Amino acid sequence: MRWSWKIGEFAGIGVYIHATFWLLILFILYTHWHEGHNLATALAGVVFILAIFACVVLHEFGHALTARKFGIKTRDITLLPIGGLARLERMPEDPRQELWVAAAGPAVNVVIAVALYGLLTAAGARPDLKNLEWVGGNFLNKLMVVNIWLVAFNLLPAFPMDGGRVLRGLLATRLEYTRATQIAARIGQMMAFVFGFVGLFTNPFLVFIALFVWMGAEQEAAMVQMKSSLGGIPVARVMLTDFRALGPDDTLSTAINHILAGWQQDFPVVFGDHVLGVLRREDLMRALAQGGTGALVRDAMQRDVPTADSHDMLESALGRLRECNCRSLPVVHNGQLVGMLTMENVGEFLMIQSALRQANLARQTA
Predict the structure, then answer these.
(1) For the chain, what are the domain ranges?
(2) CATH architecture of the domain formed by 235-350
(3) pTM of this prediction?
C-alpha cells in the first residue's frame, strides 16, 4: 500500500504503518493534553493507543497464520487509523477454511482479554467491564475492555468485519458461494442502515461506521460476482491482440507517435521475442521531461514486470495485475509475446458477457 513504511517482520510477513496513522497519534496527543494539561498524560494516551494496535497486529497475524495452514500466503499487514489490514493472496475456496481464517482474529483478542483478566485478578485488582476511563484508570483493565470491544465489533455479521466472513462461511456450507455472499452482504447493509439511522439521533460516529459497513458489503458482493463471472475463462479470450510493441533502442518519439495515433497507454518492450519490460505512460512523461524525445526506451521502461500466460485463468492474471498495481500485463506463450491484458478490456468483456446473458434470458422468457 502506498504511503506505508515497514516497521517490522514476523514469520516472513512484513508489518507496515500507513502515513494516516500518525494523524491518530496527533489526535490522541491533543485530546489527552487537553484533558490533563501535562506531557505525562499525553504520552500515556499514546502508549495506550500503541498497546491497542499491538493487539490489532496480533489479531491480523491470527488471520495470516491460520490462512498459511491452508496454503494461503499473506502479502503484508498494514496499520491504519481504523484498524489493521492483512492482505491475503486469496480467500479460501472451502467455506469451512474461510470460517476458520475469519474467526482466528477475534479468537486472538479473546485470548488476550482472558490473559489480562487473569493478570488483574492475580494482582489483586478487580476487573471492571463497565466503567472505562480513557484518561487515567488502570492500564491493563482498559486494554482488556478494548479487546472485548474488538471481539464484539469484529463479530458483527457484516462485511468487511470478520463476522461477515464467518456468516458467509456458514451460509456457503449449504448455499452456492455467490448466493451466500449476496445474502451476507444484504444482512450487512441492513445493519448499516440501522447504524446510520440511530447515529443521526445519537452518535455521529455510528454514521461513519454505517458508511464503512455499507461500502464494504457492496465491494465484497461485487468482487465475488466478478470472480464468478471470470471463473474458467482463459486469458487468451480477453487479451488484446492488436497492439504496438517497442524495442529497447527505440527513441521516446516513437512511443509518442504510437500514443497520438491510437489508444495505447503502456507498451511492451521486446528484444526479438523476449519481453524485457513495459514502458508506462507516466514513465514516458517523466523521461520526456528529463531527457526529451531523443531518450531511449531502455532508460525509461520498467524492468522485471510480471507477465501472464495466454493459457492462465483470467482470475489469477487479474490477481497479478492488482498485486503489481499495473494497468496492463504482457501476455506470453512459449516465451513469445502474444497479447496485452488490460483492466479496461476486462471491463468491456464483462459488459459484453452481461449483455449476452440478458439477451439469452429474454429469448428464454419470450
Answers:
(1) 1-155, 157-230, 235-350
(2) Roll (3.10)
(3) 0.66
